[in-house]
């Protein structure tokens, strides 16, 4: 390890290091950062992050403020998704919320004598389910989509047997932004006494306001009978900084299956409700502060900007020769596809213009956040130019998640 250096030098080094990073502040990224376009909120995040760097949420008895904040964030989330009673916790993100829901389902199944349970998801379900199943030794049965790119309840029904514990619906799915038929999937689960998880990581903090704006929103939350758990990321459309999600259960008993208690250790009784041991406090305080600051009116105002901007993107894309929006997205997340153009080449030109569009199997992925209202025209004119550029794409598989080069 080299010798230490003054903080100012380290900061200068950091500044230089980030020069090649994506310009999210300028609205050039679409899924990795949710830019709320709100300087006051950004300032609040800076302060709260600083204030809660040292605290540890592993033990809420030492820091009751964190226990209280987590409780209040969970309560707000519960009200948003129409959950009365029940329970839940915060987690570090969508992947952990999904991990916890799959884990509680596994424990629930094992209590019923199913040693290696299975879950049924659509092909469009987030890879976090595959990851959770991989870690937890649960089988994932992935079934095809309907023509409208939504999960196919008939295909799910065909995948059921006595080992299946949990059915999954997305609200919406990440690749196409469409909401799965939650009532059909939940009733399929309910009829057989199975669990049903709604992955609202993406939509959980936006759909309630979308509905309030008068937009058509198909049933997706705890108002749907048979939905037993739900995940919703505060660090996406909740505009909190990263490390904040919630997982909720209709039955408070399910939360107990999330706990890990260990009492045979010289260090004493160890208990925790989520996967982390030492648990960062800043994301909890950050989520709490964001919700307090924005409030219902703030979330509604941001939802309006996101909706209006999404329309401008959709209309602009549809007007470009050769490009189209895939399917009929329910929200502010969509894929740009083409039947005639090399969409990889379009992506290459957009990359050269400094945009960071994620590449999917069938097109380019776009996720609208409030800041994008400022760049939509520039984006669309670059996109039109990119579509008119006649060349073959590098096909370079830019991705949403990746492992670092070694
Ligand atoms: C983002 C996302 C996840 C995973 O959340 P992370 O916070 O990235 O771990 C799961 N499901 C959907 C639909 C998502 O959009």
Global structural class? alpha/beta
Topology, number of strands? 13
CATH class of the largest domain: Alpha Beta
Please state the average pLDDT score.
95
What name is given to the CATH topology of the largest domain? Aspartate Aminotransferase, domain 2
User: What is the CA-atom radius of gyration, in angstroms?
Assistant: 22 Å
Overview of the molecule:
The structure is a single chain. This protein is of the alpha/beta class and 406 residues long. It has two domains: 21-40 and 296-383, Aspartate Aminotransferase, domain 1 (Alpha-Beta Complex); 44-291, Aspartate Aminotransferase, domain 2 (3-Layer(aba) Sandwich). Helices cover 38% and strands 14% of the residues. It has twelve helices and 13 strands. The strands form three sheets. A seven-stranded mixed sheet has the order 1-7-6-5-4-2-3, sandwiched between helices. α7 (182-191) links the parallel β4 (164-170) and β5 (195-199). α11 crosses α12. The longest helix is centred in the last third of the chain and has 37 residues, at 282-318. The two termini are 19 Å apart. The relative contact order is 0.14. The mean pLDDT is 95. The chain binds pyridoxal-5'-phosphate. Pyridoxal-5'-phosphate binds next to α4. Pyridoxal-5'-phosphate binds at residues 93-95, 98, 126, 128, 170, 174, 199, 201-202, 233.
